[in-house]
């Protein structure tokens, strides 16, 4: 099986949201008038972003999920993606499972694979994804204003607990480890939430490096500071099994849940609570935007706490 | 230096052709009414697509050039690209040179880097590029018709000769090796030619796997056959130094020149000759579209010749 057969066999399907998909020098796309494209790219490397024994079907789902999550954080509606894949060898069992997971995820979000590249090399997966949204309505990182409330979706930390377990830092009982694994392997991109936050949120991003680290990006780009109220941050029930310091690290510095963090004027407080009920999604106010340029963690008495861990940095840490 | 600093330092510049570039969850793009986007993705792996000792500045130019070449083959005007980069370590000398070459090439074609990703891993470079063109005017692989002439740009084979030299299959004298190296390292994407071929060519692609192998893609997608007249195929002067069999292999099966192959009605013959003069670019008629579904190589007496080599296949061959 050569390169062309491989693409045709595993990845070529009729292209939705595109005029021409896989098979020519490029795909062709039309964009509706009055809309913008939101474009994001991610690269995942074996041994760094996923374990060498990762289940290929779950992996296929996850690589698309983390890219969809970037679109969610912009408030965009996903349209299509490309896939570039370096494979150490042609392993048909692996490819069948990987493409099954990837394309199932694509179906769930009604997007199509419009192009890409395969080559031999150390297992590396690069995806670029595009979505569309009405011009000028994107949720940027630069829109937070003094006094805005800071919100997060979902309970945080289960994905990070799974990483701690797999790397031997903690030992979870089987059932609990499995639940946390599910969060790590199969994060749910918050697409519907992102779309509904257009016109409500002032700034947004997806938590991929940990709440505190990612909030720093909003502070930098919005030229503001932030305070986070430790006692209010919603964490996964399973984290009760962890010692307090590791629990805090998991939900404050773990980025593996791909939930959204966003800011909004206090005027929107009730609308956001209603939205959470409507989407059946936990939405919790965990702090507010303040003057300055740093992220502060406050205890129940609003006293500053030291921050002794850091967000995942792709170069500062080894996996 | 962490991941964010790295992007900001080496790759972030004001975005042209984009409403928002590097630095948020996604870039934002507006597309003109009546236009389509052409989207292509390529992945290059060290040791497979480039040599481990490759000059990083040339490499930066080349990775963008091969992606631009795909847009040329569609007749599109390049607009922007994303870059995903896996690096074994942060080597600032390498990064400075690589980004210099990449961004210089981007400047020459007036496009901007709008997003991407960096991570630690075996040196791998994934680029996705987009261009625009008036709706419905793309040069597809599926448009060739019986009786159409087959054309190629530029003399072919110098890039392949450089590969043969570097891998020890042939020994070129220094000056000649340097000239062939230049073609291999710094191919010129035929953007202007592609744009001008809109409305003239019936089908087009860029020669990245070798003339005969790539022509097969046109035959498959256009449901036709092709004959190529060996004596007419323009090859680089430097190839005279090669034995005949290797010379033929270089210009018929070498894909490293990134020239265009296209088909057009004989009615367009004169217009194409004029276009070659205007663009100061060799454009040569090398065959024609015939019934059937195979690519035949004919000698000066129009007798079929055996084809004893194959185009570069990313999986069938080891580098």
TrEMBL record, chains A, B:
| Domain PurM-like C-terminal per the UniProt entry, residue ranges | 147-295
Domain PurM-like N-terminal, which positions?
Answer: 23-131
What are the binding positions for ATP in this chain?
Answer: 116-117, 141, 208
What keyword terms does UniProt attach to this protein? ATP-binding, Kinase, Magnesium, Metal-binding, Nucleotide-binding, Thiamine biosynthesis, Transferase
Q: Binding positions for Mg(2+) 4?
A: 25, 40, 70
User: Known catalysed reaction(s)?
Assistant: thiamine phosphate + ATP = thiamine diphosphate + ADP
Summarize where Mg(2+) 3 binds, as residue positions: 25, 70, 206
Q: Where are the transmembrane segments?
A: none
Q: Where is Mg(2+) 2 bound in this sequence?
A: 42, 70
| EC number(s) recorded for this UniProt protein | 2.7.4.16
Answer whether the UniProt record assigns the keyword Transferase to this protein.
yes
Report the domain of life of the source organism. Answer: Bacteria
- GO molecular function, one example? thiamine-phosphate kinase activity
Q: Which residues bind Mg(2+) 1?
A: 42, 117
In this chain, substrate is annotated as bound at 49, 256, 312
Q: What is the stated purpose of this protein?
A: Catalyzes the ATP-dependent phosphorylation of thiamine-monophosphate (TMP) to form thiamine-pyrophosphate (TPP), the active form of vitamin B1.
Family the UniProt entry places it in? Belongs to the thiamine-monophosphate kinase family.
Looking up HAMAP family in the UniProt record yields:
TMP_kinase
Q: What else is known?
A: Reaction mechanism of ThiL seems to utilize a direct, inline transfer of the gamma-phosphate of ATP to TMP rather than a phosphorylated enzyme intermediate.
| Protein name per UniProt | Thiamine-monophosphate kinase
Source species = Iodobacter arcticus
